[in-house]
């Protein structure tokens, strides 16, 4: 397992002790854990398309698989053991006590035999749920410890969690896909409090539609019970998430991401897919209104909203500033080719790219048919601005803005970016070198671009 990190990233710092403890425990499994400083090893990070930190890969025979689970020692160890182990474990009475004490959520199957078709279905389901340990037993005493009656019809299966909804019994067919669907729907609490530990399990859940309650400590006691009652109505269909707005470390940044301002409680619907669509809840937060909101959400009847910074009063720089509300005007203008960078202010790679991007825009600022633009992806959204990490560079050819943009898949150097633009521009342009650098420090090309010593044309 390899972790790509940056020294200044807070999430990387928080992961460090958990990652070290996991490495210690996994030594006996003959699994090595390593770290790569992406600041020093930029080329290696680029080879694996690392765009956020920490990013963790598990390698088997040289083939990488990304780890999206919780960033805790137990979650990492459980995930890797699933990858290298049998998937299910036979549980004795002695081991049962340890499992119930040490593990946050577990699945136990009470069977007639520890080998056979039911064990195969259970093992296959286990491979689909990497962050939950699966166990099996034929011992009625073990089954009783897991709230299964000794005389129950077998196969029987139960999921235990350390939360108010402690025991969930399964009553479906004993088939891989059905068991995995049951576990996926029930492994999260009715309402998950958003924090560093729970975030990965929220966003990697098979249930992609989320309803989020944003509230401060003053409103929590009043609103959280209402929210929990609503969650019961949509179990297995919607994920309900509580965000503590006055938690400066996690809650406030999450609130900012969703465009939630002030201290008044708010409810937002969210689809965690490529489009990252949000929906606002209007009115008083009551059980009846959340129920209606949830039903409309499931039936796709809600109108999405997109956050935006104010449109700049002036926008005369070489690199145009794009916000959600001027995206159509600048990027989707059919008369212009547009190169757009979607960035984050805290992104180290974005900061490295900035001088190159500015220099490129400066040398091309006279090409009337071309726009070089940037958008802060943490504060602005648009249905056509789709991205998975920062920086995201996309090219929108003139006259064809209805299709998906062309992803920039070249080196992030000025020359490479210039060649990319020349190749994909729908409106051709040409830059010419000055006839003589001694007679004039600058000249004008056929499209009015001033050429100076050391510019793009010289570098080519």
From TrEMBL:
Domain spans labelled Thioredoxin: 1-85, 305-426
Superkingdom of origin: Eukaryota
NCBIfam families: ER_PDI_fam
Gene Ontology biological process terms, A to Z: protein folding; response to endoplasmic reticulum stress
Claim: Oxidoreductase is one of the keywords in the record: no
PROSITE patterns in alphabetical order: THIOREDOXIN_2
Descriptive protein name: protein disulfide-isomerase
Any Gene Ontology CC annotation: endoplasmic reticulum lumen
Biased composition annotated in UniProt, kind: Low complexity: 436-446
Pfam families in UniProt: Thioredoxin (PF00085), Thioredoxin_6 (PF13848)
Keywords, in A-Z order: Disulfide bond, Endoplasmic reticulum, Glycoprotein, Isomerase, Redox-active center, Repeat, Signal
Record's function text: Acts as a protein-folding catalyst that interacts with nascent polypeptides to catalyze the formation, isomerization, and reduction or oxidation of disulfide bonds.
Catalytic reaction equation(s): Catalyzes the rearrangement of -S-S- bonds in proteins
Top-tier EC class: isomerase
Gene3D superfamilies noted in UniProt: Glutaredoxin
The enzyme's E.C. designation: 5.3.4.1
Annotated region described as Disordered, given as residue ranges: 433-460
Assigned protein family: Belongs to the protein disulfide isomerase family.
């Amino acid at each position: 397992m390899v972790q790509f990190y940056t020294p200044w990233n807070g999430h990387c710092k928080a992961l460090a002790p958990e990652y070290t403890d996991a490495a210690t425990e996994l030594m006996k499994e003959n699994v090595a854990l390593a770290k790569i400083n992406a600041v020093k090893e930029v080329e290696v990070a680029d080879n694996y398309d690392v765009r956020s930190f920490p990013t963790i890969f598990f390698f088997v025979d040289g083939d990488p698989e990304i780890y999206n689970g919780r960033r805790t020692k137990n979650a990492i160890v459980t995930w890797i053991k699933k990858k290298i182990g049998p998937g299910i474990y036979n549980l004795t009475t002695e081991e049962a006590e340890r499992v119930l004490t040490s593990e946050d959520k577990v699945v136990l199957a009470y069977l007639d035999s520890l080998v056979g078709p039911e064990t195969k279905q259970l093992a296959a389901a286990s491979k689909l749920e990497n962050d939950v340990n699966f166990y099996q037993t034929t011992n009625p005493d073990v089954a009783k410890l897991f709230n299964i009656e000794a005389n129950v019809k077998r196969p029987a299966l139960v999921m235990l969690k350390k939360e108010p909804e402690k025991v969930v019994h399964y009553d479906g067919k004993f088939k891989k896909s059905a068991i995995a669907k049951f576990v996926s729907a029930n492994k999260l609490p009715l309402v998950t409090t958003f924090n560093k530990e729970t975030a990965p399990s929220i966003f990697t859940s098979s249930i992609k539609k989320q309803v989020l309650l944003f509230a401060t400590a003053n409103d929590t006691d009043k609103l959280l019970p209402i929210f929990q009652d609503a969650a019961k109505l949509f179990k297995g269909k919607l994920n309900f998430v509580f965000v503590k707005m006055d938690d400066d470390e996690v809650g406030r940044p999450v609130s900012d991401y969703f465009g939630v301002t002030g201290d008044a409680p708010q409810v937002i619907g969210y689809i965690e897919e490529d489009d990252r669509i949000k929906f606002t809840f209007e009115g008083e937060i009551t059980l009846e209104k959340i129920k209606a909101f949830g039903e409309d959400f499931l039936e796709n009847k809600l109108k999405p909203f997109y956050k935006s910074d104010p449109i700049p009063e002036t926008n005369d720089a070489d690199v145009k500033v794009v916000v959600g509300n001027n995206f159509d005007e600048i990027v989707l203008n059919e008369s212009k080719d547009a190169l757009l960078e979607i960035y984050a202010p805290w992104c180290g790679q974005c900061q490295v790219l900035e001088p190159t991007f500015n220099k490129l825009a400066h040398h091309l600022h006279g090409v009337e048919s071309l726009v070089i633009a940037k958008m802060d992806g943490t504060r602005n959204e648009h249905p056509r601005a789709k991205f998975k990490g920062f920086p995201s560079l996309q090219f929108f050819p003139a006259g064809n803005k209805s299709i998906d943009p062309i992803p920039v898949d070249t080196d992030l150097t000025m020359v490479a970016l210039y060649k990319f633009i020349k190749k994909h521009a729908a409106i051709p342009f040409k830059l010419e070198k000055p006839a003589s650098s001694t007679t004039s420090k600058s000249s004008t090309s056929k499209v009015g671009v001033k050429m100076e010593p050391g510019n793009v044309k010289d570098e080519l």
